[in-house]
Every structure is written in C-alpha cells, then in structure tokens.
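Worked example 3. Consider a protein that binds magnesium ion.
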Amino acid sequence: MSRRAINDPRWPGADPGLWIEAAEDAVRFAGRPALFLDRDGVINEDTGYPSRPEHIRILEDIIEPIRRANATGWPVVVVTNQSGVAQGLFGWDDFADVTAHIDAELATRGARLDLVLGCGYYGQGRPPLDVADHPMRKPNPGMFVEAGRLTGLDFGRSLMVGDRESDFQAAMGAGVSKLFSPAADCIGLRLGPLAEVVRPLAEAAELIG
Ligand SMILES: [Mg+2]
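Given these inputs, the predicted complex is written out as structure tokens:
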C-alpha cells in the first residue's frame, strides 16, 4: 500500500482536524474520473463510531466497484466525516489503525484505496475541532476539492457512493453527479438543482472503465 501522508493531524503544525493521505503517484490520475466512497456504511458496516479494527466488518458489495476502479486506473478516494475525533470518542491513532485494518481486509479481496481523507471537525466537538460547518466536513465539498487538487481528477465523470444525504450534497458541491448507495433509504433521493437521483450500488460497477 503505497500512500503517503499529506496532512497527518498528529504532526506538529499540521491541520489538527484533517487526515489526508494519497498514493505516491497520485498525479497519474490526472484527467481520470474517481470512485469516491464514504467509509462507514459503504466500505464497512456503520456500527456507530467504529474506531477499533475489531469493529470493522467489510460490506462485500463495495468490493467489485473498487476492484473495477483499480483495474481501470481510476483512483478510489475515501471521504469520511469523523466527528468522533472532535467529540473525544477516539483519536487519530485509532483512525490510522482502522484504516490499516481496512487496507488489509481489502488487500485479501484484491482491492485497494488510493486516497483517504478524514475530517475531524464538528461544531459540537472539543476545541480546536469545534468548528461548525467546516468546509472539509460533508455536506461541504472540501475533501473532494482537496482530492482533486492532489490528483487532477475529472469530477464530471466521477462516481460517489454514500449512505447519507450529506454524502451526496458534498459530492454535488464538487461537481460529482453520478450518485449511488447501498442504503435503501437513499435510493431514489433527488438532489441539487439538476435533481440527480441516487441509484442502487449494484448499478455503479458497470459505469467504471
Ligand atoms: Mg456513512
């Protein structure tokens, strides 16, 4: 797994609420669409602030879209709100442990994540992370924009898989309008001025490649 930290909140002087790591050769994705993924409820079951490797249960339906993206040269980009950090429920060390565990679980299935972005800001959190409506926190598009800055990816042809309306609002804010969900209560949602419809996850893989 060759990703490198761009911003690690544990570094002195780093942005304390933002985790960013990217494939060493992220520039090779310039001009490519991305497969954007929320984490909890999309890659792994949302068990309620999963913060330890033993909390992670991989959702197998996401594996095929990831593998297709890997095979065709699209970056797979995780964009995850982690308000539990702001709330003091867990720390970035725990987030790193979970990420490493997810990487290992995906590797056994022949799947790989190319960028991981996590936002720890949350209005009801503890200082210095108690920032309301932070531009990096979904439904704002900051994490998508940052991924685009690091790779030069093509938002217009990119896909987003989420399990909450805020995932799709954030994607739309960055110009990602192909929206998919494994969650029954999201399928059929219409968002934004173009009234883009959220479609079943099963339809995503055929659009990749
Ligand atoms: Mg989620």
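Take a moment to read the result before moving on. The chain has one domain: 3-207. Strands lie at 3-7, 18-23, 35-37, 76-81, 115-119, 159-161, 178-181, 190-191, 196-197, 199-200.
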